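Need RNA recognition motif's 3D structure for a figure. Predict it.
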Amino acid sequence: MKLYVGNLSFKTTEQALEELFASVGTVTDTHLVMDRMTQRPRGFGFVTMSTEEEGQKAIESLNGKTFDGRPISVSVARPKEDRPPRRDFGGEGGGGGGFREHRDRDRDRDRRGGGGYDRRRN
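Structure prediction for RNA recognition motif:
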């Protein structure tokens, strides 16, 4: 059974997380999620317990428990397809348009000056 573990201290290690859950049952896998840019922990991770019973026991005994100075949250991990879609603010398309859209618009604009209201013509 795969469990989501949230509100972890940024100082928590995979080894410490595994030791915590091993006190409740058999841990088959531990994964702390790291930030891609900084390679620092993001404050949550996943622990896989060997059976569903051990997973439920871990949720009951560790959810809300203080670990590394923070009250952690432990719940059943949801599959990726069950999560709401991620909002993407980068790149082209959607939102405020990309660089190419502005470049194309500016290329078609008349750049000979003038424009605006000229009182002398009226």
